[in-house]
Amino acid sequence: MLYIAASGSSAVPKNAIIHFIIQKSAKDWTKSFEKDLELRIEGCKEKKRKRDDLGSEKSNKKEDVGVVLPEKLVQNDSLLEFVTRNPQFIYQSHIIEDMIRQTSEGLTNLRCPIRSSEGTGGAYFMQNSTGDKIVSIFKPADEEPNAENNPHGLVASSNGEEGLKKGTKAGEGAIREVVAYLLDHPINKRRSFKNEGTGFAGVPPTSMVKCLHAGFNHPEECKAKFGSLQKFVENYGSCEEMGPCNFPVHEVHKISILDIRMANADRHAGNILISKDEEKGQYVLVPIDHGYCLPESFEDCTFEWLYWPQARQSYSPETLAYIKSLDAEEDIATLKFYGWDLPQKCARTLRVSTMLLKKGAEQGLTPYTIGSIMCRDSLNKPSILEEILHEAQGSVLPSINETTFLDSVSRIMDRRLAQVHK
C-alpha cells in the first residue's frame, strides 16, 4: 500500500502535479483535510488463487454465477476468458473473439474498467489497449440489483432473492443478456456463436465471460467475476434524447418483435440506443439491457415503443415472414445447447409469448395491439394475456402435462384475439 499526504503549505507550488505510474491493478482513495490531501493507493490483495478463481476446475458455489457455472474453462491465467458449459462447444464467432481479444488487451495494458454512472447495477466500460476507444460493456452477475455486491447498495437479504422485476432473480441478468443475443436470429438463419450475421432486432454480440480486475466492486477479497460482455455500439445517445417521429417504422417494429417474444419487463427509452446508417441516411435503433427478459410471469412487462406512432402500423410482408419462421421449441433447444436449460416457468413464458406474437401477426394485428394484450393497463389489473393463462389453468387438471396446457392456452387465445380483432 502506498500512502501520501500532500500539504497545502507555501513550500508546495499551488498548481503542482504529481504523476504516478502504477504497474498493477489497484484502488485509490482520497480524503481532504482543509488544505491538505491524503492519497492512499492499495493493490489487489495477492493471495494464493484457488482453482475456481481463474483455473480450470469447476466451482461448487452456484451463487458465484447466479445461473450458469462453467463446466470447463480455458486453462490459462488471463484477466478475461470466454465461458461455456458445453464441452462440445469450442469456437465462438470472430466478432465475439475479437471483442474479447480487444478487451483483454486493454486490461493487460492497464486500461481500467470505467463504471457507468447510469443504471441500478454494476456496468463497466471496457477499453482497448490504447485507451482511446470503448470496445465492450461488462456486467458482473454479482453486481446486479439485489445481488450480493451491488455497487449502489441495492443488496438483498439473501442470495436468490427476487430481482427488481417480478418473475426474475438477482444474479440471472447476465445470462439473460446472452440469451437475448442468441435468440435474436438473423433473417433466414438460426443464431449461433458461429453465425456472424446481425440479428433481426440488432442485439449487440454478447457472451458470458469470467473477468478479474480490482476496479470492480469487491467489498471483501478481489476475485474473478462471471458476467455478460457485450460489444459496445457507437451511438448518438438513447431514445430518451430524441422524439420517436424520426425513427423508421421497421426499426421500431424489429424491437417490438424482440420484446414481445422475450416478454421484456424493462423496455424503456433509455435502453434503446440511436445509431445511424450513413449509406441510407436513416437512424438505426439498437436494443440493449435485456437482463429482465423471459421472466417467470408477465406481470411487469412494459414496452416504451407501445406509445410511439410506428407501433400502430401493420407489420410488413418481410417482417411477417420472419415472425412466421420463429419456433419456441427450437429456441429452447438452442439455449440448452449453449448451457442454459431454461427453467419450466421461463420456458412457458417463451412458448406463450411466441404463440401470441405469431397468432397476432397472422391475424393482421399491429405491434400496439399485440403489445397491449401482453402489458397491463394498470398495476393492479391483469393483462389480457394473464387472463388467458388464468382461464387455461382453471380449465385443466393441475397434474396435466405442458403440451395439453398449451393447447388450452391456444384455444382460449384464439377466442380472445377474435374478440380484439372485431
TrEMBL record:
Keywords: ATP-binding, Kinase, Nucleotide-binding, Transferase. Its EC number is 2.7.1.67. The keyword Transferase applies. InterPro entries: Kinase-like_dom_sf (IPR011009), P4KG1-8 (IPR044571), PI3/4_kinase_cat_dom (IPR000403). One of its GO terms (molecular function) is ATP binding. Residues 144-167 are annotated as: Disordered. It holds the Pfam family PI3_PI4_kinase. SUPFAM superfamilies: Protein kinase-like (PK-like). Residues 110-404 form the PI3K/PI4K catalytic domain. Belongs to the PI3/PI4-kinase family. Type II PI4K subfamily. This is 1-phosphatidylinositol 4-kinase.
